[in-house]
Amino acid sequence: MDDLRDPRKTLGEALVAAAGKNKKIVAISTDSSSGSGLTPFRERFPERHIEFGIMEQGAIGFSAGLATTGKIPFVVAIAPFVTARPFEMFRNDLGYMRQNVKVVGRCAGLTYSDLGATHQSLDDIAIIRTIPGVTVINPGDPIDIIKAVHAAAAHVGPVYIKLGSPKMPVLMDANYPFQIGKGVVMQAGNDITIIATGTLLSKAAEATRILKEKGINPRLINMHTIKPLDRELVLKAAAETGKIVTVEEGYLAGGLGSCIAELIATEYPVPLKMIGIDDLFCDTGPYEELLAQYGLQGDQIADTVEEFLG
Amino acid sequence: MQKLNKGEKTALEKIAVQNRKNVLRLMRAGRTGHIGGALSAIDIMTALYFEIMRVDPQKPDWPQRDRFVLSAGHKCLALYATLAEKGFFDSAILDTYGALCSKLGGHPDMHKVPGVETNTGALGHGLSIAGGMAMGLKMDGLDAKVYVIMGDGELAEGSNWEGAAAASHHKLDNLLVFVDRNHLQISGPTVDVMNYEPLDKRWQAFGWSVREIDGHDLTQIVAHATDIPFEKSKPSVIIADTVKSKGLSFAENKVDYHYWKATDEDLEIAERELDEIEERIS
Questions:
Q1: Which residue, A193, A270, A271, B268, has most beta carbons within 10 Å?
Q2: Could you tell me the pLDDT band of residue A2, with boundaries at 50, 70 and 90?
Q3: Contact residues on chain B for A59, CB-CB shorter than 8 A
Q4: Which residues of chain B have a Cβ shorter than 8 Å from any chain A Cβ?
């Protein structure tokens, strides 16, 4: 039985732990503190929890100002509303001003499967990674979330953390050495490399199991950091396995697949298959069914990989 | 409320003229710039840096310092001129404005220019950043204050009103905004381009305490800016009526000088005018 954990609850607990160690950490909410898993933080550190209402542009600007006084703000809110909506504040006030602010976009990807394209966040990785100096993390399981929060708190500079909402299975060892910018080989193999990130890491892991049962040995990489990208690990995989498949709950344009394509096209060209969401606004419906609609379930990923291998 | 005596007023007026001369020095170097807004705001900046704010040019990162946020970043010629005069950097750097990789760009960069607190340029950012500064200072129990200059045309950006609402909600009475109401923006009279009136009531409705002054009267600027908070637990705003390109008679109140491409002849005329103003003060 999988150990399933709520990513928002996990985030909230990790943030309380980080804030217990570092008094500079403050939490910023935009009318969504309980939905963002911040209730324990608000109860434990009421004087360090600041509410802004439905005001994401203002909240990002205020966070930049708070950071100039030495605070380490964690802004946690629904993903599109802290990325696409206040993009210019993210770019100028956090990126250009190099402020030590951590933005957590929760319920990203297709999490809001029922609420439609306004609430689904498929472009966050693509747009935020264009900002110079911003670190972009997309944790693949609850252990990654905990480690990402602590790593982001310790890192000096703006960070974006993308989170889903449905419960995630624990895939990583609780003691593994998480390092920003360093991907993790979860499964050794030389037939092909599957590089997955975020919420779809578990689907990619399922695909890997299916493929192994068929005698195919993929290398599975948890690419929890999109930026800075672990170039060395990707180029090694390209050289040793000859083909790469990327898996992400986001747009192909500008996402993890794009990052890998940009790298290998110039450094070590090998055939690449990018699995994610193509150029469209997605439909609505139950989350798992919606993933299936776009070919993002484990068995579908396995089929795509097998077909790609030929 | 600090009242300037006659001598203090004269001294400050002289600095204001020198700061305007520094703006022309920048224009000599770079030849282009947002002169109109720089010269409408420069008396406020002069008063802030030379009478009002607690700053130390030798310690630009001093935690207890007052902060200045130039939300209307295009007025940066006035900021560079004032910071150089105050001693934050060598005034010779003014002569690099417009050159490749100069520290002094067309909008200010905090990582390049000592004394600059924020990277502004895109309008509608400064107030929220300043609000965060004011909030952080209060959380740390520091009595430092945060001063902001916004343009009146800038007020059309909705993000300003997010910042205004949050600053009053969080009772940031260590925050003072100057609206540099020079009445003009690049397309024409501000209220014709996008009407903001009644401006005082708009700020009041957002929970701010409002005063209106002549933004070129140094005595008024100092008196009111040293009297904050105007009301306890409320942020303060001064609507400062100003004249675009103030000090250059040929350019005053003319929208064409929002952004100026100066010729040698223009600059000679401008420099003569400032010399005459200086002589009158002496």
A1: A193
A2: confident
A3: 166
A4: 63, 67, 110-111, 117-122, 125, 127-137, 139-140, 159, 162-163, 165-166, 169-170
Contacts of A96 in chain B (CB under 8 A): 119
Which pLDDT value is given to residue A131? 98
Q: In this predicted structure, what is the pLDDT of residue B282?
A: 80
Mutation for B interface: A69, A87, A91, A93, most B CBs within 10 A: A69
Task: Assess contact for A174 and A266: CB atoms under 8 A.
Answer: no
Q: Provide the shortest C-alpha distance from residue B157 to chain A (in Å).
A: 11
The rounded distance, in Å, linking the Cα atoms of A113 and A287 is 5
Report how far residue A69's alpha carbon sits from residue A157's, in angstroms, rounded to the nearest whole number.
14
Q: What is the per-residue pLDDT across A69-114, written as a single tens digit (0 to 9) for each?
A: 999 999 999 999 999 999 999 999 999 999 999 999 999 999 999 9
- Show the tokens assigned to B70: 């130039």
Residue A178 lies in a domain: no
Query: Quick one: pLDDT at residue A1?
Result: 54
B261 Cα to chain A: minimum distance (Å)? 27
Residue range A21-48: average pLDDT?
Answer: 96
Query: Which of A55, A63, A98 has the CB atom closest to B132's CB atom?
Result: A63
Site of tokens 């957590």: A104
Which residues, including other chains, have CB under 8 Å from residue A35's CB and lie 6 or more apart? A8, A78, A106, A107
What's the pLDDT tens digit per position in A4-23? 999 999 999 999 999 999 99
Our count of domains for chain A comes to 2
A47 touches chain B (CB under 8 A): yes
Triad B254, B257, B258: Cα angle to 5°: 105
CATH number at residue A81: 3.40.50.970
Give me the total of CB pairs closer than 8 Å, taking one residue from chain A and one from chain B: 97
Beta carbons within 10 angstroms of residue B139's beta carbon: 16
Residues in chain B closer than 8 A to A71 (CB atoms): 136, 139
In this complex, is the C-beta atom of A93 within 8 Å of any C-beta atom belonging to chain B?
yes
Q: Which residues of B touch A55 (CB under 8 A)?
A: 162, 165-166
Query: Rounded mean pLDDT of B165-187?
Result: 98
Euclidean distance between the first and final Cα of chain B, in Å? 27
Assigned domain for A174 exists: no
Is A175 domain-assigned? no
- pTM of the full predicted structure? 0.97
A177 lies in a domain?
A: no
Q: Which domain holds residue A85?
A: 4-169
What's the pLDDT tens digit per position in A201-254?
999 999 999 999 999 999 999 999 999 999 999 999 999 999 999 999 999 999
Mean pLDDT across the stretch B214-218?
98
Question: Tokens at residue A41, please?
Answer: 């933080």
Q: What is the largest CA-CA distance in chain A?
A: 59
Q: Report the distance separating Cα B251 and Cα B136, nearest Å.
A: 41
Inter-residue contact A110 to A287 (CB < 8 Å):
yes
From chain A, the residues in CB contact with B130 under 8 A are 65
Superfamily covering domain B6-281:
Thiamin diphosphate (ThDP)-binding fold, Pyr/PP domains (3.40.50.970)
Best of B70, B71, B123, B128 to substitute, by most chain A Cβ atoms within 10 angstroms, is B128
Domain at A218, CATH number? 3.40.50.920
Same domain, yes or no: A151 and A196? no
Confidence of residue A305 (pLDDT cuts 50, 70, 90): very high
Report CB contact under 8 Å: A88, B121.
Answer: no
